[in-house]
Amino acid sequence: MHFGRRGYEGARLVDIAAEAGVTDAGLLHHFPTKRGLFDAVVARRSHTYAAMWNPAIVTARQMFDAYIASVRAAAEDRDLARFRGSLSAAAQLEGHPAEGHLAGQLDQALAGLVPFLEGCRDRGELRADLNATQVVLEVLAMNSGLRELWLQLPERVDYPNALAVAVDGIYERIRASSGE
Fold first, then answer.
1. Rounded to an integer, what distance in angstroms lies between the CA atom of residue 44 and that of residue 47?
2. pTM (predicted TM-score)
């Protein structure tokens, strides 16, 4: 994936079309602008985590398991994971197409996950003193950091398993004990 390997500025539509096995005109038919293609790739990357929002998930343990499964799926496409890493840096640049995108995703994650975890707390699955915002931020930061380490040293960092261990540890810390 060109955006992941070369960034937005370095990716050229002609190279992307050639790698995809289509003509420039064919690519432009579906994506008339580089920005349109970039936005489509951003959306595709975001779909990896869509399973987390399954309405059948009713416990924090199920949500964490779905999150771990989503990370495992995301790690199967290293270029897409690299693209996510490049988005983190690019989103900080004024005028970059990624500007504001990750802040919107973080806001969406907090808006959905914090009340969900608070509901799990209120139903007795999680500790009464749970700070749901802190937990969400910890899990997201752990994911970002481990993904970055894996991208730097994939032969030494087992990103999906390291994240699973970390998330399991967070869950064990926040789950209600049988005496609560």
1. 5
2. 0.79
